[in-house]
Structures are given as C-alpha cells and as structure tokens.
Amino acid sequence: MSDSTRRLSLWKRGLGVVPDEVWRNTGLQTLVLADNGLTEISDRVGDLVHLRMLDLGHNKLHALPDGIGRLEALSDFLYLHDNRLRTLPASLAQLDRLRYLNISENDFEIFPEVVTSMQSLIELRVTDNRLTALPPSIARLTRLRELHVRNNQLTTVPEEIASLSGLRQIDLRGNPVTHLPEALCTLPRLDKLDLRWVTTLEPPAWFAELEAKGCIVYR
Question: Which of 75, 152, 181, 207 could form a disulfide with 97 if both were Cys (CB 3.0 to 4.6 A apart)?
C-alpha cells in the first residue's frame, strides 16, 4: 500500500461535512480533518480500523461518536483540541495503545475519567479548559511523561500523582494553585515543574529538595 493511500490530509478545506468516501478508505493510517468547521463526525469513523493518527482539531465538535472507540490501532496521536467538547464517550477506554492525546481548548469542567483508561499515554494535554480538579485515578497513567494542564482552575494536584514514576514535566501555568503535595519530591524523573503565572502559591520549603534533585521549578 502506497503512502498516498495510507495518509489523507484534508486540513483547512472548508468541508463543513466529511465526504462519505473518506469513511470508505478503510486502509488509512493517518487522517487529518483539522480546521474544517465540522460540527459532527460520523460513527463510520470506527471503520478506519488501521488508523494510527487522527486529527480532528480546530473544529466545532460538541460530541464524538462511540465509533472512535473501535480505532484500537490508534497509537500515535489523537488531536481533539480547539473544539466544544464537554465530555468524551466511554468507548475511548478501548484506545489502550494511544500515546498522545490533546483535548486542550474545549469546555471540560470535569476531567473526563475515560482518559485514565488510556494506559499507554506518554503525553497528555488538557490546557485551556475549566477543570477544577484532577481525579485520583490519574495514577493509572503509569507511562505518562508529560502532563500539560495550563490555564485551568486547579488549586492542587492529587497525592496519587506520585504513582507516575516516569513523569518528567508538569505544566500548571496559569492555575490558581494554593497547595501542592510534597509527594512530588518522590517522582524520580521529574525535571520540569512549570508554575509561571501562578500568583496564589506560597512556595513550600520542599521546593529546594526538588531543585536539588535536578528539577527546574519555573515560577
């Protein structure tokens, strides 16, 4: 199969609606539908069972079809940023090979619990939403290296984050953080804690210990 039949980019084509022939192209491994003013995605997206990367960013999606959960080969990237999502379908729990998820710039007030079932995630971006808390179940993401939650309404992170032994970067910029758990000091690979634009936190004494271990604390 040639690259031209495995990869399809319809970026910024002003589609409004995805053409039916896209869903018939079941050999696709990469599909880019970003910036097309899309308000919905057909459940037929689940027929693209060989997809490894799907880009639905910069659209007007209020919901996702359950069919996305059938994309069990999706392993590289899932871009859902800059839409109008408030929830994610439970079927996404089946995406247990996915390594990168971006759900930034949506309307999430509650962290979508289904994300914590995606246990192969290496990088998670949930910036520019309205989250007030991260769930303790985030501890399930044991392969996570980067957690980006800039510009939300977080006042802390859960103690359970200490279970993420591979975590290297935490971006908390622009959150009204008032407390951080000392358990962050136990993260063996943490090398960047970004607290810029955080004006509500009195830096705890244990920051010195964290920095002594080689972690850069931006504040």
Answer: 75
The per-residue pLDDT for 5 is 78
Supply φ then ψ for residue 169, to 5 degrees. -135, 135
Q: Give me the CATH topology for the region 3-130.
A: 3.80.10
Q: What is the residue extent of each domain of the chain?
A: 3-130
Contact (CB, 8 A) for 175 and 151: yes
Cα pseudo-dihedral 10, 104, 114, 73, rounded to 10? 30
Question: Buried b / exposed e across 145-180, counting CB within 10 Å, b at 16+?
Answer: bbbbbbbbebebbbebbbbbeebbbbbbbbbebeeb
